[in-house]
TrEMBL record:
InterPro entries documented for this protein: DUF4396
Keyword annotations: Membrane, Transmembrane, Transmembrane helix
Name of the protein in question: Integral membrane protein
Parts of the chain that traverse the membrane: 45-63, 116-133, 139-161, 182-203, 218-241
Residue stretches making up the DUF4396 domain: 95-246
UniProt entry tagged with the keyword Transmembrane helix: yes
Length: 249
């Protein structure tokens, strides 16, 4: 962290509390998906990861709607020759939200990995344009963020679509790219937008400088940025799900 960065006590306390809450919510849902695995295996990762930034809202969504998509619930429905409860008792707006969170989990993991990699190995940012294309290191890291998030997003989408549609590996990859590209771009727009606001205005105004990756304030801002990403990606996911490009979850 820069020597000039001096977050006020209330901001530091708020950041610590928010990160601890996110960690606790993620741990809770990790235990839940181990005990009650999701029918769609990738959702066993999505719920705990999204709880890191969505905290109590994601915990509520899991208990209200996520539990409808467990393997147990699917098996009980099959025994009664019924449709899975997540397909009959989940409102369409919630299905859209689950689709957005599916994308957001890849963004979250990708951004965390990229930010720490660039912080610990600054040369990585140079490879992505720092000093050559950008004076600001942050812009180069954002490109790295996008690459990591996009790669993980495609992987997550692949393992969601292929089992549901019975596609071949090649067909699954094409379908995953179609389903995730616009969703991820729209999510990253919200994330980048809030992080730019925080780093160029909010933190300099409140703390005298930008927050470093190794500060709790940076990751608190990232939590909020992920929520912003959810909001900007939601309309895009509505269109993707309603048009059949993304699967209903």
């Amino acid at each position: 962290m820069s020597a000039a960065f001096a977050a006020p006590g209330w901001l530091h306390a708020l950041a610590v509390a928010s990160l601890l809450l996110g960690a606790a919510c993620s741990l809770l849902l990790s235990v839940q998906v181990i005990r009650h695995p999701q029918h769609m295996a990738v959702m066993n990762v999505v719920w705990p990861v999204c709880a890191l930034f969505g905290t109590l809202a994601v915990v509520w969504a899991y208990y209200r709607y996520g539990r409808l998509a467990t393997m147990e619930a699917h098996h009980h429905a099959m025994e009664r020759d019924e449709k899975p409860p997540n397909m009959t008792r989940t409102p369409f707006p919630v299905m859209v939200g689950k689709g957005a969170l599916h994308c957001g989990s890849g963004c979250m993991l990708g951004d965390v990995a990229a930010e720490w990699l660039a912080f610990l190995v600054p040369a990585v940012a140079v490879w992505f344009g720092w000093h050559s294309l950008f004076e600001e290191k942050m812009y180069a890291v954002w490109i790295l963020d996008f690459v990591f998030a996009y790669a993980l997003g495609i992987v997550f989408q692949y393992y969601a679509i292929v089992p549901m549609r019975g596609l071949s590996p090649g067909e699954g990859l094409v379908a995953a790219v179609k389903a995730d590209t616009l969703s991820l771009i729209s999510w990253q727009v919200g994330m980048y937008g809030f992080m730019a606001f925080a780093q160029f205005y909010l933190f300099p105004h409140l703390a005298g400088d930008r927050a470093s990756v190794n500060s709790v304030e940076f990751w608190f801002a990232m939590q909020v940025a992920m929520v912003a990403g959810f909001l900007t990606s939601y309309p895009v996911n509505w269109w993707l799900v309603s048009s059949g490009v993304k699967e209903r979850m």
